[in-house]
What we know:
Layout (H helix, E strand, L loop, with lengths): L5 E2 L5 E2 L19 E2 L11 E7 L3 E8 L5 E10 L2 E7 L12 E9 L2 E9 L2
Antiparallel strand pairs: 1-2, 3-4, 4-7, 5-6, 5-8, 8-9
Amino acid sequence: xxxxxxxxxxxxxxxxxxxxxVSLQIVETPLGNALLQNVPNPFNPTTAIPFAVxxxxxxxxxxxxxxxxxxxxxxGDRFEPxxxxxxxxxxxxEGRRVASGVYIYRVSIGNWTRVRKxxxxx
Length: 122
């Protein structure tokens, strides 16, 4: 575009000097631990589980059936501060594909623990 025109909400053309300035701040170290929703959800065949670690600590991430039976341990290691993700392929600890359904994932970072649900559709 050679001469793009920007209009305000009332339809009035704005000059380049009148455009709002947008400032973005990139955060590399989270302010607190966090467990985010898996993406995609529902999923097939794999899903990513994002989480954040505020200070260096031991992280475990496990998948459970709705009945509370452990299906898979995805992580069990020390992580540095930052934003991380684990991938689940819909298999149990023995490498067998699990059935479609709702599963629960739980992350523990030190003594901080959170859970969320995910949906596997085969």
